[in-house]
Amino acid sequence: MTGRRLAFNYPSTPLHGRDRPLSASPQTGEKKLLNAISGLSRRLTLLAADVNKQFTVVNSRLPSIEDRLAALESKNCVEETNSKKRRRVNNPKIAEVVRRLHNSETNCRRYKPEQGQTSPHNEAVTSYLLGAISASPDLHDVDNDTIVSACKTYYETVRKNFKYKQPDLASRAEAVKSSARSRSRRKRLLEARQSVLAEDEVDLWKSASVDLMSDEEDGIVDGVSGWIVRPPSFRSQELTELCAKLQSRLEAIPKYRATHHRRLQNGPNSDRRPPVTYSSEAANGHLTVL
Predict the structure, then answer these.
(1) Which pTM value belongs to this model?
(2) What tens digit of pLDDT does each residue of 29-54 get?
(3) In what order do the strands lie in the sheet with 215-221?
(4) I want to staple 159 with a disulfide (CB 3.0 to 4.6 A). Which of 5, 113, 219, 275 is the partner?
């Protein structure tokens, strides 16, 4: 046995990380990382290209948007200016001067309602009226826009009257005039009755409107001309009694009797409809039908 080597089999033990032999694993990891970075770079490049494309589209649209905004601002300015002009034209003195000058016997330049406002003839009439009124010493401080607008307003009045004289609109014109005349009478009646209210009647009368006054229509009874009274069917009995009381006070005033037509008799109820909008608080005492 002398000189013979014995062979021992030692158990194998796992190697720690630092003791492991180098392999291809780190290289594979680096390659994956580089591939990921490369892929991300390509995506960023594509994203940047897409963003640039979108910016290009937006920039191409900006001029049109700016043009639209400018147009809107210009329109608003024009509308505001026109609105100011319309408010400025509401000058009864200038309107009356235009009407009198246009209809004077010495004036041979008059609007032709069958022609448009901007026709050569009607434009010439406006120019003539403008020059004549501007030359008036009493009106030298009135700006031209006010005079021109008043002329255009009067032209519209002339044209409207012309249209209503046409056969197909004659009945409509008469209905419009009759309605306006009736409303004007009811308004005067409301104001007159309000002037003779007693203190204890104010609460019931409060918020009463022209729609609650009776229609006064021209008529003749026993050869006497005056008004036929047609009360509204929707007026409450309480308010009707107050109206009758106030009317009696008015007719007891000599000046009122001398300046107003005589009320001859009550006719059938008015066929007017009740007002669409009315104070809910006042409606309880004024209306029978809401």
Answers:
(1) 0.45
(2) 777 778 778 888 888 888 887 777 77
(3) 215-221, 224-230, 263-266
(4) 113
